[in-house]
Fold this sequence. Notes:
Helices cover 54% and strands 7% of the residues. By secondary structure, it is mainly α. It folds into 2 domains: 214 residues, Glycosyltransferase; 132 residues, no CATH class. Helix 1 packs across helix 17 and helix 2 runs parallel beside helix 4.
Amino acid sequence: MEKLYNKSIEVLKSVQLENGGCLASPKGTRYPHVYTRDHAFCTLGFVSAGLFENAKKALEFVWDRQLDNGTFPQRYDLEGRDSSYKPLQVGEIGLMTVALYEYIKATNDLGFIKKYWDNLEKGMSYIESDISKNRGLVYSPNSIHEFPPYENGWEIWANAVSYGALQRAYELGKLIHKKTNYNELAKSMKNGINNYMWNSRVKSYIKTIRLKDSSSVATDADASTIGLSEFGVIADNEDKMILTVKRLEKELWHSELGGICRYPKYIGRNNGGWGPWPHFTLMVAKHFIRRGIREEANMYLKWVLANTYDFLIPEHIATKDEFEDYVQDFTEAGILREDRLVMIENVKKHPKFIKEGLALVTIPLAWPHAELIRTWNLYKSKFY
């Protein structure tokens, strides 16, 4: 595991540009852009690895490019210009706030938080303006899966990370003697999540309460519910969180390949073949680490290690048949964008696809490497 840990640090360093931005995947692969979400997790990986100068540059890259309304673009190009093709996502503010908090906690760089305090307040104001007054939940047109038909409404990941941001912004304010109401807003969000997003029928927190033109409740198992413990909304040892994770294991563990899938199979949900995602698998591993259940944590870590190639971690893994189905459907529909063509070419020429019939989609992806760093350091602090 130490070899994978060291390789993961190499990957994060290699994708960071001179201006501080972190590419989601290297040039020549599918995502040669700075996606704010992936960039935030790279920043967290740098902090976990003790690479504080890299983390500081990464934080400056995004906070210096904050939009006037307090949000961040979905993605930037290599020069740091907004190159988004998706609507604004409240979760991006939350993740960059979590990353800022972890950097300050690790370094006690109070000058940095003072420098960016006005930016942070703008971000928290955006979150506050998005909170439903009678539900305590934030609205997002799309979130972590970026699939509006499934996520348009009060979505679990956006709410979990927004709660985490408010709670951490409150703590940062205390460090520099700034009085805020962020902890009260966080409490109202936690109440909203518990009051409206726990479903007693499926015994799990749910994905989305969809609003407006297609009001509905998405109750399917979804890996993004792990965000509740990831960002401190619900403690790992609380019964409702334990039940939620049990459901993820039961319904999202891939029967053929192993690993935790992002979501169940849906009509219209295909992103290079359906299959398990290492970074969500690692987040589930962290749940068991925090609970002190070493055997379960070992199983998930070993699965991730076994599904690397030359110690590089893919975005996700698919069977050859599932991947070919994706290629055929998207080809015949005429929607193979340039980035998808790059991804298909890279998958098909990879030795794993040729020799074993496994599609390693987008390898390496920076996010799971950042997640491996964080998970392994948590594991060592808990069990060693």
